[in-house]
Backbone:
């Protein structure tokens, strides 16, 4: 019997898995696959900040100098709802919905990538997104990836993982991803974007990217995808077994 079936049919306790790390560290791929294998819901919290960014872009809330018109955005936050399609597409991705509209393709554009960090530093934006994320996790049985999941969104998550990989390797992955999608883009431009996002993500005042004290660290630079998944599945099983023994 394969693993996903085991978790779906047994009444093993459901947990929250928080996977944080730098952009393009490969954490989303790992998180999505773990969720699939164990029959959990997967939430890409970065997609939520990207959706808010798209909303701001569409509604003229990005100033010509690239800064955000915060006064215009904040009163609109309660009108913004970000959700995910319940069923994954052929590529395994559950598309992101902005007030019901499928915006998956648009939120992955370089333009959104370039504007998302200044949106994600706004405390009111974070407050709204964290509230939605916590609602998603109310029933547990969820894998969520992002920057502050193990520290702020679910500080009591039963399993926390922090993924690291070198900047050059992450930029290379991101460049390959974008060019495979047909984008004509120079590696240097992608490298600059990833480096700048690292800088903003780690230095912002509210919920900067940091490793939770009780997170397991994975250096994702030099290992294969299969090795990553083996490592993650082992941790997941150990966490469940520990809970079962305690309960
Ligand atoms: O993971 P990503 O590259 O799609 O994330 C997009 C942006 O959102 C990135 O600049 C960091 C920010 N983000 C965040 O601040 N907190 C999260 N939990 C997830 C993403």
Residues:
């Amino acid at each position: 019997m394969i693993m996903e079936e085991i978790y779906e049919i047994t009444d093993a306790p459901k947990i929250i898995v928080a996977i944080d790390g730098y952009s393009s560290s490969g954490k989303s791929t790992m998180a999505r696959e773990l969720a699939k294998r164990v029959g959990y819901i997967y939430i890409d919290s970065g997609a939520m900040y990207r959706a808010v960014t798209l909303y701001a872009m569409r509604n003229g809330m990005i100033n010509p100098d690239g800064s955000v018109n915060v006064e215009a955005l904040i009163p609109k936050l309660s009108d913004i709802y970000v959700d995910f399609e319940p069923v994954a597409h052929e590529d395994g991705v559950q598309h992101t919905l902005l007030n019901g509209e499928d915006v998956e393709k648009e939120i992955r554009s370089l333009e959104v990538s370039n504007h998302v960090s200044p949106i994600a530093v706004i405390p009111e934006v974070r407050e709204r997104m964290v509230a939605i994320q916590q609602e998603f996790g109310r029933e547990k049985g969820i894998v969520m990836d992002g920057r502050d999941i193990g520290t702020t969104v679910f500080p009591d998550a039963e399993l926390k993982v922090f993924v690291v990989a070198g900047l050059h390797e992450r930029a290379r992955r991101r460049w390959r991803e974008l060019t495979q999608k047909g984008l004509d883009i120079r590696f240097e431009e992608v490298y600059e974007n990833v480096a700048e996002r690292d800088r903003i993500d780690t230095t912002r005042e509210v919920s900067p990217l940091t490793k939770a004290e009780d997170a397991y660290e994975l250096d994702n630079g030099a290992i294969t995808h299969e090795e990553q998944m083996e490592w993650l599945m082992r941790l997941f099983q150990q966490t469940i077994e520990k809970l079962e023994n305690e309960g």
